[in-house]
Design goal:
- It contains eight helices and four strands, in the order H-H-H-H-H-E-E-H-E-E-H-H.
- The chain is mainly alpha-helical.
- The protein folds into two domains: 118 residues, Helix Hairpins (Orthogonal Bundle), CATH 1.10.287; 125 residues, Helix Hairpins (Orthogonal Bundle).
- It has a four-stranded mixed sheet with strand order 2-1-4-3.
- A hairpin with a 6-residue loop joins strand 3 and strand 4.
- The longest helix is centred in the middle third of the chain and has 84 residues.
């Protein structure tokens, strides 16, 4: 009896540095299902581009908010450091004032003792102690004066930092309010688009998805899949040879732009989508027609008004 051998399907490994160029020369991709894969990639690109537009609408507000938060943390750290320094200086000045009080008490004591001495040696010894206490008192006064100046400077810097911090906190509150307003307006659409993007990604071959992400991350406008526009690449706008345009139209294999590395798809993808999608721009067309009619009537009334003015 012939034994049946189970056929194992080996899925191609996902290479981290995969690009569309490597996929272009790969033989593991099925040409029959290539058109569907290209359509999915193009649909993913359009969805991600809409998400990018939402992020562009927010502009640099998220970065500005982050910068303000970092700046506020810096101000708070500086304020804490200044507060500690002010406290240390005040404690030092208070200790020196106590030293002066102690020195004056010692001088008074030594003067009383000097008045009751019985010999010159005791008199000289007490005189030196008095002189030492006077010098120590003068030194303490000098240190108090110097540190008082430093204390005034540090307090000025401290108050300036408090004012700056208050201003930055107000700016942060305004920026957050503005950002929250924009996020609230686009939150639902962003969630829907992100969900749609995830659903499309789940249908795409992992190798193609890895290549898409790599090209997209390197592209300035984040466009990894572009259509051919008037015989040129929709990403870098370089001309495409006629034979390659035919290959792109057939959608049987991956065609990559020789200049920018983006994958090229046919314009018919948009046309097919336009046929299947409902006509949502009809009211706008009617409004345009109305506006053209009114502008034509205005143009007819202007010569008549000019004639009337001449008469």
């Amino acid at each position: 009896m012939a034994t049946k051998q189970a056929i194992k399907t080996v899925s191609p490994k996902v290479v981290k540095g995969e690009t569309f160029v490597s996929l272009q020369i790969s033989k593991n991709l099925d040409p029959d299902s290539m058109e569907k894969k290209l359509k999915l990639l193009y649909e993913l690109q359009k969805t991600d581009s809409r998400i990018d537009k939402i992020y562009m609408l927010r502009g640099e507000l998220p970065l500005e908010v982050q910068d303000l938060e970092d700046e506020i943390l810096g101000h708070k750290a500086k304020i804490a450091s200044l507060a500690k320094e002010v406290k240390d200086i005040e404690a030092f000045i208070a200790s020196k004032k106590q030293d002066i009080v102690g020195a004056k008490a010692a001088i008074k004591k030594y003067e009383q003792q000097r008045n009751n001495v019985k010999n010159n040696r005791e008199f000289d010894s007490l005189s030196k102690e008095i002189e030492y206490q006077e010098l120590d008192s003068q030194l303490s006064e000098k240190k108090i004066a110097d540190n008082t100046k430093i204390l005034v400077e540090r307090k000025e810097i401290y108050n300036a930092e408090i004012t700056e911090l208050t201003g930055r906190q107000e700016d942060l509150a305004n920026k957050k309010k503005e950002l929250d307003g924009i996020v609230k307006e686009t939150e639902r659409e962003e969630k829907d688009l992100l969900k749609q993007s995830e659903e499309i990604q789940s249908q795409i071959d992992p190798r193609m998805l890895a290549a898409y992400e790599k090209v997209r991350s390197n592209a300035r406008n984040k466009m990894a899949v572009v259509k051919v526009v008037r015989g040129a690449c929709g990403g870098c706008f370089n001309k495409i040879p006629p034979q390659r345009q035919i290959d792109i139209e057939s959608s049987k294999r991956i065609i990559v732009c020789e200049y920018c590395g983006r994958i090229l798809v046919s314009e018919k993808f948009d046309e097919e989508e336009g046929k299947s999608a409902p006509k949502a721009e009809a009211p706008i067309a009617k409004e345009v027609k109305k506006s053209t009619k009114t502008s034509a009537k205005e143009a007819e009334t202007k010569p008549a008004a000019k004639k009337a003015t001449k008469k």
